[in-house]
Fold each of these.
Amino acid sequence: MTILRKIYETALRWLWPEICPFCGKASSRGICGVCRKELEKLKIQEPRCKRCGKPIARMEKEYCHDCSHTHHHYDSGLALWLHGKPVSTSIYQFKYHNQRNFGIWYAREMAEQFALSIRRWDPDLIIPIPLHSTRKRKRGYNQAQIVACELGRRMGMPVDATSLCRRIPTSPQKTLGHRERKANLRKAFALGRGFVPVPTVLLVDDIYTTGNTMDAAADILKRAGVEKVYFLTISIGQGY
């Protein structure tokens, strides 16, 4: 471990004391034993949708209802947990209450649970889903970027947090219906002029609902020459 890394981790512990990112209680292990048991209940088991990774009812089905009726621009992806408590409350604290250190734990779980999939995808770049500049200034950080950077460090893969940008300040997806979500994200993303396309990109975000955000980002990447686009998220919804 480098001296700079030690300084960085000491600063993190000073700014954000070691607490369980799911219940907020002090825990030297990060995720406490009680919450670990709750997370196991939300962990997505097989059978999974081969496209988005949501749980499906029957082994003989390959895709969830949403992916069976939707063309996705991304190739496939995975999520750590279903979007229920305590995951949903943890992500809320991470995004809106400056609990940036939670992102370190999410990335650690991604690296441990999905190491084989990430190696199989073999991404040339990890790219976080961006926030619009106005929202990022208000929040002070991009939560997806925190997870992506830590994941890249753990997997030894480069992270590009500048090339993909959100050029229009879209409305929060959770407030919109399915059709409105697609329209909301149409032309939302742009790539910097200096972006050099690579064969494979791994997108990272906090929550997957319908997949419209991932699709919009994957679409512009593929139009620029990227061949394969995969994704990882902390949680995924169900019901689409």
Note: Strands lie at 76-82, 125-128, 164-166, 189-191, 200-208, 228-236.
Amino acid sequence: MDVTRAAAVLSGNWLGSSTVPSRGLYPHQWSWDSAFIAIGLRHLAPERARRELLTLFSAQWRDGRVPHILFNPDTPPEAYFPGPGFWRAGRTSGLIQPPVHARAVLAVHEAAPDREFLATLYPKLRAWHEYLLGARDAGGRGLAAIVHPWESGMDNSPAWDGPLARVTPSTGFIRRDLTHGEAADRPSDEDYGRYVRLAADYRDSGYRDFGEFAVEDPGFNALLADAELALAAIADELALPAAAATHRESAARVAKALQETLWDNGFFFARDVRTGALTPQHTCAGLLPLLLPDLAVAPALLATATGPRFGLGRVHGVPSYDLTAPDFDPARYWRGPSWTNIGWLLHRALLAHGEPVLATQLREDLLTTAATTDFAEYCDPLTGAGHGTREFSWTAALAVDLLAS
């Protein structure tokens, strides 16, 4: 694939200080999107990559959280729901997304060293992680809990069906996403109503309470452990050896809690904090602990990844849900399709665990699929057909990074 095409997508979605995921469906700045976007931009325009992350962290809350949306004031309020008026939090939402930012900051620095950039963002990243490891430890087991499916980044995952069943859907709102996407590709009206109810209840609690939905997600916590390792490397760069050691110890504690709490029968499952039960669904979030270099159960998890449930190496990308499940859907948002960011993360994980052939195969497939689908948001893992919006920023950005690798 020619890097020029991917670069054009990122230029087209650039607002001047940040990048929108897409011009139509997602017209603001999203938290984990920006981290993945910066990882690609570092090869094309390091200053833009730094600006992307600095803009996001300019909206960090006093308690350390990094909000999942930073709203663009030049975008009409009716362009996206729920918009800033719903959240009542100024220019941001009140939810969060997975903590991939330290890894992005480190990657940007490695591509174009800038000690001032690291020194500016290190305390912000540290506060972000402290919020997750402290205020979000709802279960008291050393794992961060999410309070809304949107916080997982995998909004419509089947793993949330059980915990969401307790939530009464809101009504009377207008969905803006269906203006830009096929209804068959998006969450159902009933699920969206539950999302809105949860968000409103959390807002009305002052963004403090754990309500009906409190879940320990293996994907979120694997990314948190990986982010602590990245933060340790940043501390090393800043000549802070004691801080680096603290971050490595923190990463080890999260990894230990993951295996003790969420591992069962060859897989990592989400845990419903309200009931204490593991959710039964095999989703791609359960594969993300493979990012951790000293994972004792890596061979068993790799066997699940390459087995019939995910077919890694025999399908396009990494399916977001169990291929053998009766409710697997290759087109609907996070209920089966493959996403480039999950494929990119698993590519890293495969290299870390001594699987270079499978990693190379996955890399080539991700690049081919991005090119043939016009950088689609996600794709059918069985056919490679594109779904969701096109010219999606993280698809283009991570293609750039894979080409550079």
Note: DSSP finds 14 helices and nine strands in the chain.
Amino acid sequence: MSKIQYSVQVRLVSDLAASKEFYEKVLGCEVNDFWAVRDEFALGFKLLQAAEPGDVQPNQKGKDQATAWDTYAYMDTHGDLDRLYEELKAGGAHFIQEPVLTEAEWGAWKEFAVADPDHYSIGFGSGKRN
């Protein structure tokens, strides 16, 4: 079977320049004409200018979901997640979910989410304590 090297999410955006600035300055992505990638495509987006503002359609919440996600990225440990939170906070991120720790029989899950200029939600989580 052939190996897929990476994937990116395609995002229709209302203001390409504002989105590129957010993905570069806040999320720390390398940005060019329409690519925004971080950590060797561990987080990757193809940003496309929408023809009409109404074409921008972030996801809605799913059943029993507290925060809607358009992207979800995993961090290795809670410590890594905490460091990313501080990095994004210092970069001016708009948090739509502050860090939450959920205890369960199988362990502890910690997550938070930020929103981009078009209200696309990017969640980050970790299931492994430091």
Note: Helices lie at 16-26, 78-90.
